[in-house]
Amino acid sequence: MTKKTNMKPVYIDYLNAFDIDSLALTDAEILGAIEKSLTAQGNNQTVIEPRVHLEPDASFNGHFNVLRGYVAPLNLAGVKIVGDFVDNYKRNYPSEFGVLNLFDPRTGVPLAIIDATAITDMRTGAITALGAKHLARKNSKILGHIGARGTAYWNVRLLNHLYDFDEIRVHSRRPESRETFAEKLSNDLGKKIVVTDDWRSCVEGADIIVEASRLPSPEPMLKTEWIKQGAFVVPYGTMSAVELSLTDIMDKLVVDDWGQCKAGKFGSLRAHVEAGKLSEKTLHAELGQIVAGHKSGRENDGETILFWHRGLSLSDIALGHAMLEKAKTANIGQRLRFA
């Protein structure tokens, strides 16, 4: 298309990884941004397109996720592309690299390009924490966390922001990974972190259990019998690490978006959907419906509740928007001429 000489110049806001570090979003700012997007979703003010995947080659041991959405209260549409490559640690890379593009939903004009690697980690942790805010017991004191992937840090940090745990247990497959993870958490949270050598000692008896493992193929590592009554369980590994019986002990099954959870190749409860254990009939609610006040969250301490989240484009858009707003105030980032 030939550019018309009288067209208003188009500029794109650009935030790289260093800019995002400089913003130093607080825990409250992250949670606040994501909670607004969940409220919009619960009030039917959003559009979520099911994620799609690109697998370049099976030997690469990874894939790309493409997430698309629209958040009406923010007047933004967005597309995020994030890679998820299990062997990246061998190259001293995070497992996930991402880019978020934001657009004017009325004209299609591009508005921003943002490094979405940190966004992916932060918003995933925020969804986990906000799920706990509405679905875990208020007096939860023990956290058991499986996995030390990029999102794991923000799971623990934001959950601890809400609950100030008496005990935090962590485990991952590689000893060097779990030890490094625990050391960072201990330094940042100012409390002792218990490193466990196995899954059972990490999760048995915990009030909140998060399973964010990096299995190469589905394997039932998390046993249903280890889950105590009244616990809040968040399994979201790409490959399932739970037993088919896990949903049988739950009083409520909650997801972030049923459209994404009921289809696709990956996900911790894929087998449960295929077996009919998680369906429109057995699903209690989407988290956005609970946050917006349209469905109930936890109703008593005896309820055992599961929350499965696949990751929402809405969360990426909302957190990207919050970063852009703070960047403008702090004069951080760059503006690029597009047209």
TrEMBL record:
**E.C. no:** 1.4.1.1
Checking InterPro entries in the record gives: NAD(P)-bd_dom_sf (IPR036291), ODC_Mu_crystall (IPR003462), ODC_N (IPR023401)
EC class of the enzyme, as a word: oxidoreductase
Q: Which UniProt keywords apply?
A: Oxidoreductase
The GO terms this record gives for MF are: alanine dehydrogenase activity
Gene3D superfamilies xref list: NAD(P)-binding Rossmann-like Domain, ornithine cyclodeaminase, domain 1
Q: Which Pfam families match?
A: OCD_Mu_crystall
* Family under the similarity heading: Belongs to the ornithine cyclodeaminase/mu-crystallin family.
Identify this protein by name: Alanine dehydrogenase
The opening ranks of the lineage are:
Bacteria, Pseudomonadati, Pseudomonadota, Alphaproteobacteria, Hyphomicrobiales
